[in-house]
Amino acid sequence: SVTRRLPQVIVVRITERRPVALWQHQGKLALIDRAGTPIVPAELVRFAHLPIIVGATAARHAGVVLDMLGTEPALYARVVAAVRVADRRWDVRLDNGVVVRLPADRLLTAWRYLAEIERDDHILQRDIAVVDLRLPDRLTVRLTPAAAIRMRDPGQSA
Question: What is the end-to-end Cα distance of the chain in Å, rounded?
């Protein structure tokens, strides 16, 4: 911000915004801060390590979802992207390709439950494509296509 103080003083105040994610919208990437405000960088390549937030309204919810995901650091370290679905809930893509479908409400409870299951049973190291946590009374998984074939005909994979 620039302010003029009479008679001959101009005050320039610079506030640096900290990048927290890359926002993907309409096929383009933009660097955003916690509030979802785009930051104009020289090169986006320098920020490739940041998670990607996807969706038309995802940027304005980025700070909240990233804070929630950060409550479980081991799991958060594996987050590659968070996709805003129907402007009400999130799908989270992990580094191994597994998609975690989170509910519209009780997000934190579902995320902590997944972290607990991962610590105890290493569920994310199995041949699964999707972990669905949208229903409060159950966890549903979808196998990868290869694992599904092995389950249908176990003798074939011997």
Answer: 68
The predicted-structure confidence for 53-79, as pLDDT tens digits, reads as follows 999 999 999 999 999 999 999 999 999
Phi, psi angles (nearest 5°) of residue 91 = -110, 130
DSSP state letters, the chain: -EEEETTTEEEE---PPPP-EEEEETTEEEEE-TT--EE--S-GGGGTTSPEEESTTTGGGHHHHHHHHTTSHHHHTTEEEEEEETTTEEEEEETTS-EEE--SS-HHHHHHHHHHHHHHH-GGGSSEEEEE--STT--EEEE-HHHHHHHH-GGGG-
- For 124-136, what is each residue's pLDDT tens digit? 999 999 999 999 9
* Residue found by looking up tokens 């930051």 in the block: 39
Nearest to 91 by CA among 54, 139, 142: 54
The pTM score is 0.85
